[in-house]
Input
Amino acid sequence: MITHGTEIKIFAGNSNPKLAEAIAHNLGFELSEIEVGHFSDGETAVHLCETVRGRDVFLVQSTCSPVNENLMDLLIMIDAARRASAGRITAVIPYFGYARQDRKARSRDPITAKLVADIITSAGADRVLTMDLHAAQIQGFFDIPVDHLYGGPLLYKYFEKMVDDDFVVVSPDIGSVSRARNVATKLNCRMAIVDKRRPKANQIEVMNIIGDVKGKKCLMVDDMIDTAGTIVQGAEALYANGAKEIYACATHAVLSGPAIERIKNSHITEMVLLDTIELPEEKKLDKIKVLSVAKLFAKAIENIYLDKQMSEIYDD
Output
């Protein structure tokens, strides 16, 4: 059985071509040519314009909005590569959608994270490369190897110049405590938690702040910003409790619905996001800064190709 090919081929879907191009540039070559379009009725049409027979193929596609379309594009890209006799197919999914339903929170709920993992595997992917899954256990939903990258090192590297005795890392909810603790440990600073209650989906009610934030510079850490309700109401709670400056950071810039307006009118001084999801012009604000994950993904792809361990990609 062929485990991998003798040449890297990187193809970009339509979700984030700029990131795919930057990844290829960091590896020192151009993107391979692919056509991802649609028939008149909306069906996805994919054509690989280069041979992939026996090659190590990497398909770069985030499953961000439009989620279903981008997911279907990825599946058909995988199928096209498999039927063209690719040596190994790696689905590079910087942002893995459908990850929030990773368990049955209520009776008769689906577990869509497992469903999507099964579909990607059935399509013909041999392994998955992704970043900051909403829940780490989703790695186990796949029956193929998963390389799980972390955006934290890029984010805390950016903020380490601001760290002093008045700097506090804040978890915007209980679910992000582990993530915030890791950043606080790396930055060697104190930590606080926003304790909140969510009466229903996309509605939150902030209860109180656990920890001292009065007169402090606060950094809220999360894995994604969707409608920005959690992060903005957390910022308001920190401001009401006397925080001096409020920063926020996250890996995935989902930014749906009222997110941009909420961020624009919030007490957040600066929000730092990674480019796992492309930020369109209409969503760019002066207070939003975007850092690139291209170099990290390029090093990961190189290590996958060379069968080297992943831990060393964070050495820089």
Notes: Residues 220 and 248 are 5 Å apart (CA to CA).
